[in-house]
């Protein structure tokens, strides 16, 4: 019984130390998850801006360094932009960002399971490259990123090692 009471107190203490999240509004629903957050959004400038800010502040509140949080923010921005280009304006998206040890995990879900990212055959620094640089940068900043099926379509997962 004492052990159960101790665990309950520890859980309450952890909850009180979590970073503040914005209030839910139409198109933006954010919840805490273990050492991070989950945002259910409808693509918009306001939602993207809010999620980018949380992508820096929340991991840092759980011990991630500034460089790692900045990399996570860049990845979220790139993945959200790709989702809008692939799926269209006002697409529903789910963004998960959380700390794992000293690293950060970024997952972005979109409803287009059949629209998978494709790397360009043109080199990133080529003058003829018009697009596709983002996936090359993803390879550099989150080597081993992958795409899996999810209940809402597909999920792109990126693991960022601490810097």
From TrEMBL:
**Gene3D superfamilies attached to this UniProt entry:** Histidine kinase-like ATPase, C-terminal domain
Which residues belong to any copy of the Histidine kinase/HSP90-like ATPase domain? 45-157
Q: What is the organism field in this record? A: Streptomyces avermitilis
Annotated protein name in UniProt:
Histidine kinase/HSP90-like ATPase domain-containing protein
Q: Which PANTHER family match?
A: ANTI-SIGMA-F FACTOR RSBW, ANTI-SIGMA-F FACTOR RSBW-RELATED
- A Pfam family (short name) is HATPase_c_2
The record's annotation in CDD domains points to: HATPase_RsbW-like
- UniProt-recorded Gene Ontology molecular function terms: protein serine/threonine kinase activity
List the top taxonomic levels of the source: Bacteria, Bacillati, Actinomycetota, Actinomycetes, Kitasatosporales
- Keyword list, A-Z: Kinase, Serine/threonine-protein kinase, Transferase
InterPro entries noted in UniProt: Anti-sigma-factor_SerPK (IPR050267), HATPase_C_sf (IPR036890), HATPase_dom (IPR003594)
């Amino acid at each position: 019984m004492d052990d159960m009471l101790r665990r309950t107190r520890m859980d309450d203490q952890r909850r009180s130390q979590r970073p503040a999240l914005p209030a839910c509004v139409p198109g933006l629903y954010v919840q805490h998850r273990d050492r991070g957050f989950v945002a259910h959004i409808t693509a918009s400038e306001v939602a993207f801006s809010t999620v980018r800010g949380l992508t820096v502040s929340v991991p840092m509140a759980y011990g991630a360094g500034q460089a790692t949080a900045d990399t996570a923010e860049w990845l979220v921005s790139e993945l959200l932009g790709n989702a809008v280009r692939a799926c269209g304006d006002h697409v529903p998206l789910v963004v998960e960002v959380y700390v794992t040890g000293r690293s950060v995990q970024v997952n972005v879900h979109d409803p287009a399971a059949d629209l998978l990212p494709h790397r360009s055959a043109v080199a990133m620094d080529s003058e003829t490259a018009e697009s596709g640089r983002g996936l090359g940068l993803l390879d550099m900043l989150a080597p081993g990123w992958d795409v899996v099926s999810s209940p809402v379509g597909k999920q792109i997962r990126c693991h960022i090692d601490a810097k």
